[in-house]
Amino acid sequence: MPVGVSDLLIVGGGFAACSAMRYVCENAPAGWTIDLLSGPLGPGVGLAYASQDLCLRLNATHANMSLSVNARDEFTVWLKDSGLLDPDNRFAARLHYGTYLREWWARSLQLAETRGLKVRIHNQFACKISALTADLVSVMDGEDRLYQSPRALICEGPLQDQLPSPKHSPVISPIWPNGLAALNQASGHVVIIGTSLSAIDAASLALTQPEITRITMLSRHGRLPQAHLKAVIEPSSMLSETKFAGSLKEIFVKIRELASLSPWQNVMDVLRRQSNSLWQSWSLELQAYFMARLEPLWSTHRNRVMPEVLKLLDAARDSGRLEIVKAKFCGFSEDETGVTITTDEQGGSLSCDWLVDARGYQPITKQAATLCGRALADGYFESAKIGYGVIGNQYHRASKADLAPVHVVGAARFGDLIETTGAPEVRDQVQKALEQMIEGA
Q1: What CA–CA distance (Å, rounded) separates 69 from 74?
Q2: For 161-208, what is each residue's pLDDT tens digit?
Q3: Which of 5, 183, 210, 322 sits CB 3.0–4.6 Å from 316 for a disulfide?
Q4: What are the distances in angstroms from CA 405 to CA 35, 222, 254?
């Protein structure tokens, strides 16, 4: 059943879609109609800020979390004006960040009305791109309604597989957007699959529950993310102007050289800003080598946490309440005694009372039950050369030249890009994509 034709179709309800809606409401031609498929929870409820627990904080500093490319200190100002800025903590509560985003949703809608834009919000998942022509893209939702537009922006969030488990089970999967709330019911021995940022959130919350007596974090590499700097140290002009190039060996030599002059965190941040161009210059063989051998090392230095969080985890490890195990998760079973986890192909196992799935997001492939996964399978998009993710041009256009423009930003670009989920990168992708779509209208 056709809903009607809009001037722009946006798919998503999280940070990227919030940023897109703000930019569109500020810059789209007067009279445009915008359809937004936000998902059943509605706009402004994304993975990074769904938790209602004040103990869970963002893993990036508030200085990096603005919705706007042009007002990069905006979130900091919002915290200050709201009386929520903590001078001793640069990492805002996820709950407060969600409030900030939802306030901007409301402001964007007010601005749209003032500028003569019509915004139609649909609390539906987009399930399939049913047709692409030179003039229109058609997207179908879960109730077989069609949304048509001459241009579309896909802000599909990270894919999180769910472990199959019956209701009222001691298995929490996935933890976002609302799974962590179930930890309030947990007790005894809790096993967390993963040691990345999501797993650290789960462990931090579990440590606040006195009924949870033992926590085991399980991952293939057994590494925790590194800590942010305790205080802001601005990078030197020499470091800020450094260009990374050459072989992996040359890049490692450059990192070590710069880290002897500046905090390594600043060095990694400068490298991160260049990581996508470096990644796209590499051969398929080098990308595959990086993913197989070096990606965990990169992730634990690029994805960092508050020093206080690592201090909390270290204290729990010293007391014996927390343990980190290097092993591969291969599956699990449940019975009346609890959960048994298989940890390797040779039959190793681990028993617990509760299992928390914090593996993080999975790459988009042709087998993924997502909008981009189905579009890849149907041939509307192309896979990145490494085998997953949606390939796009410099404006993040993923559809072919003879089809209506469909741009993809954020997590679904992982593979074509290496940095796809950080707020600064996503908002830049959104602005670049929308600039081209609006200019070409």
Answers
A1: 10
A2: 788 888 789 999 888 767 788 888 999 999 999 999 989 999 999 999
A3: 322
A4: 16, 42, 40
